[in-house]
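user: Here is a favour to ask of a fellow structure person. I have my own habits and do not want them to colour yours. Could you put it straight underneath, so I can go through it closely?

assistant:
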Amino acid sequence: MAKLVIMGVSGAGKTTLGTALAGRLNWRFLDADDFHSPEAKAKIASGVTLDETDRAAWLARIKPVFDEAGVSTILACSALKAIHRTSLSPDYLVHLVIGTDLAHNRLLTRQGHFAGPSILASQFSTLETPEDALAVDAAQPTAAQVDQIIQAFALKSA
């Protein structure tokens, strides 16, 4: 079974893309935001950047679920640093690449999410651009992104 991570800064569209890709492939979808503690969500909502202790605890909650045997899984996760991506050990890595203006505009209009535009600068400063990922343009339509990923990795439906 395969493990795919879609990573990038807030507002890139990781959840939208992950949901669409999982639906197309009939794979399980996980959103890393669902694994944040209430305290971490409160920090993020107030514009405070998570520290590495926060991130390590968050990734420790994600890892066993992501690693469950017998099911191909897509994980939408910021995974901004190489160490975060390494800890998840995905088979496939997608970097959803977005510019600051588009990300900011998306975060301004996003409804019902704890992460707002106040964390964007820290997201971009924390981002260690991966060299081993498939770069996908976040400005493309979701269907085109899904097609690009499936073709690039020759992914098959479950």
Remarks:
- The beta strands are 3-7, 28-31, 73-76, 92-97, 134-137.
- The chain has a mean pLDDT of 88.
